[in-house]
Design a protein that fits this description.
β5, α5 and β6 form a beta-alpha-beta unit. The chain is 44% helix and 15% strand. It has a single domain, classed as Rossmann fold. The protein is built from 8 helices and 7 strands, in the order βαβαβαβαβαβαααβ. By secondary structure, the protein is an alpha/beta fold. α1 crosses α8 and α4 packs parallel to α5.
Length: 253
């Protein structure tokens, strides 16, 4: 096996939501693989910057609110012009709102959809436009979810958005595969992040979740990071429109 196929040496990869959780895990995995990370987020990325500096990886922090698609697109174009070209894009930024379906508000619907699916698509569009215009290949990795396959409970807009992420991943793969742009997705299972803090803090809910996971543990951000590196690297050259569940066996039950 040629391990260089998994290297990101000389590559620049943008990761949204890189300040914490899964996004930080992906950023660190890219750094370990030799890539330079453009970390995008609304809050400070000092922690991520420090961790990447410790392993000698290049890092460029970018403050931006990707919940506004026009701002997200302007940010991408600015990064390409100043730090580019961008070789890979990881659409990781996302939020979740929990409420019974009968009580779910329009505000909670729109907030989640704006970040999780609308801006995700328009960032992909920005990447595709630039890559196609320059005749360059590119890699896009979208972060899907177990709720791209299942309904879940009390997370209506999150389920809708993550089902949409998988659909858009497949659509873009169909349109762009022949142009040398690989669009794929990773579907995390239950990972130790801020988004799952409420679940892990509920003893009954946490026990029921762990009881269904064959691996018997919650995942770690690094588990998702390594899968993302695979999809960003030459090792996945013939993969288009695929989704890799990283779920400890959850979907196999």
């Amino acid at each position: 096996m040629d391990l260089s196929a998994f290297s990101l040496e000389g590559k620049t990869v943008m990761v949204t939501g890189a300040n914490t959780g899964i996004g930080q895990g992906i950023a660190l995995a890219i750094g370990r693989a030799g890539g330079r990370v453009i970390g995008v987020g609304r809050s400070s990325m000092d922690d991520t910057a420090g961790k990447l500096a410790a392993i000698g990886a290049g890092f460029v922090p970018v403050q931006a609110d990707v919940s506004v698609s026009a701002e997200a697109q302007a940010m991408f174009d600015g990064v390409w012009d100043e730090h580019g070209p961008v070789d890979g894009l990881v659409n990781n930024a996302g939020i979740i709102r929990r409420a019974d379906a009968v009580d779910f508000t329009e505000a909670d619907w729109d907030a989640v959809m704006d970040i999780n699916i609308k801006s995700m698509f328009f960032l992909c569009q920005s990447m595709g436009r630039r890559a196609i215009a320059h005749g360059r290949g590119a890699r896009i990795v979208n972060i899907a979810s177990m709720l791209s396959f299942q309904g879940g409970i009390r997370v209506a807009s999150y389920t809708a958005s993550k089902s949409g992420v998988l659909g858009i991943t497949r659509l873009l793969a169909n349109e762009w595969a022949a142009k040398g742009i690989n669009v794929n997705a990773v579907a995390p299972g239950y990972i130790e992040t801020n988004n799952t803090e409420a679940l892990r803090a509920d003893p009954d809910r946490s026990a029921s979740i762990l009881g269904r996971i064959p691996a018997g543990r919650w995942g770690e951000p690094s588990d998702i990071g390594d899968a993302a590196v695979f999809l960003l690297s030459a090792a996945s050259n013939y993969m288009h429109g695929a989704v890799i569940p990283v779920d400890g066996g959850w979907l196999a039950r």
